[in-house]
Write a structure and sequence with these properties.
Strand 3 and strand 4 form a beta hairpin. The termini are far apart. Helix content is 32%, strand content 23%. The chain is α+β, with helices and mostly antiparallel strands. It has a single domain, classed as YlxR-like (Hypothetical Cytosolic Protein, Chain: A). It has a 3-stranded antiparallel β-sheet, with helices on one face. It has a two-stranded antiparallel sheet with strand order 1-2.
């Protein structure tokens, strides 16, 4: 029997993707928001597709801020971390 692939919805595109193709973004009880490379940190998790163009478009529209109800400060460091994680994934494993 084939194993079921866990699917999650990207908060930027509202499309379902395999969990492995997404980056988890966490919002803690204290209101801190960060990209979670491990996918296991405590907090409310949302998922973002590993697509540079979509992440850049989301930054311009402030999509993460809207999705996470975070309107007090910019989440530019979070976007930068997501982009860094995408680039890290693109490096071929030796």
């Amino acid at each position: 029997m084939a194993r079921k692939i866990p699917m999650r919805k990207c908060i930027l595109t509202n499309e379902m993707h395999p969990k492995a193709d997404l980056i988890r973004v966490v919002k803690t009880k204290e209101g801190e928001v960060f990209a979670d490379a491990t996918g296991k940190k405590n907090g409310r998790g949302s998922y973002v597709v590993k697509d540079l163009e979509k992440v850049q478009a989301a930054r311009e529209k402030k999509a993460l801020e809207k999705a996470l109800a975070k309107d007090t400060e910019s989440l530019d460091p979070v976007y930068d971390e997501i982009i860094r994680l995408i680039y890290r994934e693109d490096i071929p494993k030796r």
